[in-house]
What we know:
Elements: E1 6-11, E2 19-21, E3 37-46, E4 52-61, E5 66-70, E6 85-89, H1 110-129
Amino acid sequence: MEDNRNITVFLDDDPKPFASFAPPVKIVLDTTKIPDGKHILKIVAKSSNNVEGVREIPFVVRNGPEISVLGLKENEIVDAQIPITINAYGSETSEFFIIRGSETPKAIPAWVWALLIIVFAFGLYYLIMYWDAELYKSFF
């Protein structure tokens, strides 16, 4: 019996196959040659008795820099003037690693401030309630 098994790989809606192989196969998908955005990898496999199976795998390519936006969220309703901070950073490689601060500066969350105030207040309460000069004679 002849082995007619075949795997054909398509990218997005392109009628021309991206690659064609005999199974089993390991391939490396070079995303640097694919534009950033949403894509679909369509795999068509043919068995030895010519029965086809199809699998589509959606994926997103993001080779360009990551873009971070603070101050405006998707589908947010806004009015007047709003401050927006935009930052773009990627995986640029260089020979030297220099720390230049935070990639995207963010404010300290309110819960951190509340926790610090509670800890400070408890320490102050403890000091006031249990202060006894007799216990600390050796320090003075």
